[in-house]
Amino acid sequence: MVHHQNKAIREGDNPDLTAERVTGTFDTHSMAAQIYNSEAHARRRREITEIIAKRPELHDTKPFPFMTREEKILESSRKLTLITKHMNEIIEPNNSNEMFHLNNEVLGIEGHPMALHGIMFIPALTAQASEEQQKKWLTRAINREIVGTYAQTELGHGTNLQNLETTATYDVATQEFVLHTPTITGLKWWPGNLGKSSNYAVVVALMFIKGKNYGPHTFMVPLRDEKTHQPLKGITIGDIGPKIAYNVTDNGFLGFDHYRIPRTNLLMRHTRVEPDGTYVKPPHAKINYSAMVHVRSHMITGQAIMLSYALTIATRYSSVRRQGQIDTTQPEVKVLEYQTQQHRLFPYIARAYAFVFAGAETVKLYERVLEEVATGNVSLMADLHALTSGLKSVVSHYTAQGIEQARMACGGHGYSQASYMSEIFGVAVGGCTYEGENMVMLLQLARYLVKSASLVKTGQSSKLGPLVAYLGAKSDSTSLIDRTPTTGFAEYVKTFQHIARRQTLKAADKFFGLMEKGEKRPIAWNKSSVELNRASRLHTRLYIVEAFVRRVEEVADPRLKEVLTDLLHLHVNYELLDMSTYALEDGFVSSSQLDYVRDQLYFYLAKIRPNAVSLVDSWEFSDQELRSVLGRRDGHVYENLFAWAKASPLNKTDVLPSVDKYLKPLMESARASKL
Ligand SMILES: CCCCCCCC/C=C\CCC/C=C/C(=O)SCCNC(=O)CCNC(=O)[C@H](O)C(C)(C)COP(=O)(O)OP(=O)(O)OC[C@H]1O[C@@H](n2cnc3c(N)ncnc32)[C@H](O)[C@@H]1OP(=O)(O)O
Ligand SMILES: Cc1cc2nc3c(=O)[nH]c(=O)nc-3n(C[C@H](O)[C@H](O)[C@H](O)COP(=O)(O)OP(=O)(O)OC[C@H]3O[C@@H](n4cnc5c(N)ncnc54)[C@H](O)[C@@H]3O)c2cc1C
Question: What value of ipTM does the predicted structure carry?
Answer without folding.
Answer: 0.98
